[in-house]
Design a protein that fits this description.
The protein is of the alpha/beta class. Helices cover 57% and strands 12% of the residues. Strands 2-3-1-4-5 form a 5-stranded parallel β-sheet, with helices on both faces. Bound molecules: BIS(adenosine)-5'-pentaphosphate and magnesium ion.
């Protein structure tokens, strides 16, 4: 199954992705993790990305697209994958659609985690990752509203959007995710 997990910062994308990839036996592709890994390794992509991450802004589309497309080429993505935190802008969504359509492997579904703003701020403040400072969280929320939220309509129009209530415990959310995934129709291949 080829899936995208959409949702604001702190919605629980990473948390739920870990459980879902185990359930579905597909790889977890988190662009946030890939970028943090590039920063830790000191690569040129990492050095370039850091300034944007530290400000809560999106890393330029080209850099992220290159990372994702390289990862999608690896053989373990042949049976499917779960994209977490990508795409995050309309140009990214269109580019990955074009890439996947070119391989005859379009996305099967997009799961959108829906959660109150107050709750995500609470979750992020109690985690404390490098970019979980109040002013950066505020900017990440703005970036989400301006650049990522339009993807809900994009995928709704494509008839592959499934909304999941992400309030409640991690177990409650996962059980809703499983139900959503079980309803996704994957064409025979
Ligand atoms: P990224 O790493 O993707 O961060 P994010 O979208 O801001 O989201 P988070 O990872 O903070 O939250 P999450 O939804 O994964 O929640 P989590 O499960 O961790 O991106 C970081 C930066 O990288 C971006 O700002 C940007 O600069 C750059 N970037 C990444 N992708 C990009 C792209 N495609 N294009 C351009 N730039 C890109 O949960 C959060 C906390 O809540 C955890 O502590 C968790 O334990 C807790 N929690 C989870 N679920 C629950 C629950 N049900 N109840 C209580 N606590 C919970
Ligand atoms: Mg995450």
């Amino acid at each position: 199954m080829r899936l995208v997990l959409l949702g604001p910062p702190g919605a629980g994308k990473g948390t739920q992705a870990q459980r879902l990839v185990e359930f579905l036996q597909i790889p977890h592709l988190s662009t946030g993790d890939m970028l943090r890994d590039a920063i830790a390794k000191g690569t040129s992509v990492g050095l370039h990305a850091k300034q944007f991450i530290d400000q809560g802004k999106l890393v330029p589309d080209n850099a992220v697209l290159q990372l994702v497309e390289q990862r999608l080429e690896l053989p373990d993505c042949g049976t499917g994958f779960l994209l977490d935190g990508f795409p995050r802008s309309l140009p990214q969504a269109r580019a990955v659609d074009q890439f996947l359509d070119g391989r005859g492997e379009p996305l099967d579904a997009v799961i959108e985690l829906q959660v109150d703003q107050e709750e995500v701020i609470k979750r992020l403040m109690s985690r404390g990752r490098g970019d979980d400072k109040p002013e950066v969280i505020r900017q990440r929320m703005i970036t989400y509203q301006e650049q990522t939220k339009p993807l809900s309509d994009y995928y709704r129009q494509g008839k592959i959007l499934h909304a999941v209530d992400a309030m409640g415990t991690m177990d409650e959310v996962f059980s809703r995710m499983r139900k959503a995934v079980e309803q996704i129709k994957v064409p025979q291949r």
